[in-house]
Amino acid sequence: MEAVLFYALAAVTLISGVFVVFLRRPIHNVLFMILTMIGLACLFILLHAEFLAMVQIIVYAGAIMVLFLFVIMLLNLDEFVMPPEHRRVRYGIGIVLAMMLVVFLIPTSRSIISSPTAQVVATDSATLTNTEIIARELFTTYLLPFEIASILLLAAIVGTVIIGKRSTK
Amino acid sequence: MLDSYLPVLVILLVSIFIGSAIIVLSTILGKRFPTAIKLMPYECGMDPIGGARRRFSVKFFIIGMLFIVFDIELIFLFPWAKIYDKLMFFGFVEMLLFVVILLAGLIYVWKKGALQWE
Amino acid sequence: MVDVQHYLVVSAALFCLGVIGVMFRRNLIVILMSLELMLNAVNLSFVAISRYLGSIEGQIFVLFVMVVAAAEVAVGLAIAVAIFRQKGTINVNEINIMKW
């Protein structure tokens, strides 16, 4: 059951990932990106990371993709036609990338074959939920990164307002 | 563990079924007498002004960006609220620091006039 | 039971898709989207390995990656909008003032 779900979700995620990269109209890219995000969220649930699955849907599918859609409508990009890339360059890049893909994939797929002992260990203890475990670690061990994250967000606010306001004038 | 998601699956299937049933049935059974006025885009009953593909104002973008940042803040507030009774005062202080830093950002945006709709 | 390596393969494939998008496409918005795809691929392998090792650290890292991604998207799209206002294009071949 879990294997079936995994393969179905992986197929959905990867196929919509292909569409994200290769479709020509930006609106379609964004819509397939949302599908990829939802597929990844379901994979997170399969990995017993419920909190992250919900965060994935709220932050990525809910907020970040909406911002992408805003920008596409803001710039009216849907009617903005890109000139096609130069053909020889395209083939060269394609070959290099196929090589890279192989370099990435072969070690991992080899480890599938050579590690029959690899076992999935359960993270969830019986009493605590996933969210509580994350919260306990986040607010004790990872206190400093948490506070620094707020400074990063502050920098993002300031940067966006400065860049965005200037472009309205 | 995955069994607890069965109700989610059921509600997903039911909503997909109801949604597609409404569309399919109304396409099959409904009678259509299209006129020019009926085919016009609906805009609160008025005649539409301009095309639907106009450019949006950049103000929407600044609001959307602020929404993302405070959405992230919410993501951190939720697990904090979940274990607040165990962290007590320590947790209160650290979250206060976090919120105050983001509040400084909000005040900056406010003073800068980015929330003004003009 | 699905092995952790299966998740890693999905993650690697997704990451390569993101790389292809960044190198192949000329649309700035799509390039930003491909960057998101790469970040998400890394997130997936973080979560998979966190489950495999039975520790929660990977999931906390993912949370921080999401914060960084949100900040990056906000500023990156602001820059894209500013560039479009100034030059009337978001084709990265034509945005070459910083290139020498």
Describe this structure in words.
The complex is a heterotrimer of chains A (169), B (118) and C (100). Chain A is an all-alpha fold and 169 residues long. Chain A folds into 2 domains: 1-85, Up-down Bundle (Four Helix Bundle (Hemerythrin (Met), subunit A)), CATH 1.20.120.1200; 127-169. In chain A, 77% of the residues lie in helices and 0% in strands. Chain A contains 6 helices and no strands. Chain A has helices spanning 2-22, 26-46, 50-74, 87-114, 130-138, 143-168. Chain A starts with a helix and ends with a helix. Chain B has 118 residues and is mostly helical. Chain B has a single domain (2-112), classed as Methane Monooxygenase Hydroxylase, Chain G, domain 1. Chain B is 66% helix and 0% strand. In chain B, helix 2 runs antiparallel to helix 3. With 100 residues, chain C is mostly helical. Chain C has helices spanning 4-24, 28-53, 57-87. Chain C has a single domain, classed as Helix Hairpins (Orthogonal Bundle). The radius of gyration of chain C is 17 Å and the shape is elongated. The N and C termini of chain C lie far apart (53 Å). Chain C has 3 helices and no strands. Chains in contact: A-B, A-C, B-C. The interface between A and C is large, with 79 and 70 residues.
